[in-house]
Amino acid sequence: MATCMKAVTEQGSKLSNEEHNLLSVAYKNVVGGRRSAWRVISRTEQKTDTSDQKLQLIKDYREKVESELRSICTAVLESILIKG
């Protein structure tokens, strides 16, 4: 749904209220799972007193999720602020 709504924003016309709502819901769903994963990973990272190798794996995964979140948020902001 997010991909479809991004395509709608790229058409260049002003979004209707319904289209704004659909865009919002689409990206909320895309971001929600990653935010939840980030919270769990961060809690695990803070509580982990295991080997440096395991802690590094947790940190790497947290950074990957953060990067995905940043990319998604940047894409939606660009589509509504720059193009819309």
TrEMBL record:
InterPro entries to which the protein is assigned, alphabetical: 14-3-3, 14-3-3_dom_sf, 14-3-3_domain
Record-linked SUPFAM superfamilies: 14-3-3 protein
A Pfam family annotated for this UniProt entry: 14-3-3
Domain 14-3-3: 1-80
Homology family: Belongs to the 14-3-3 family.
Name recorded for this polypeptide: 14-3-3 domain-containing protein
Biological source species: Cnephaeus nilssonii
Lineage: Eukaryota, Metazoa, Chordata, Craniata, Vertebrata
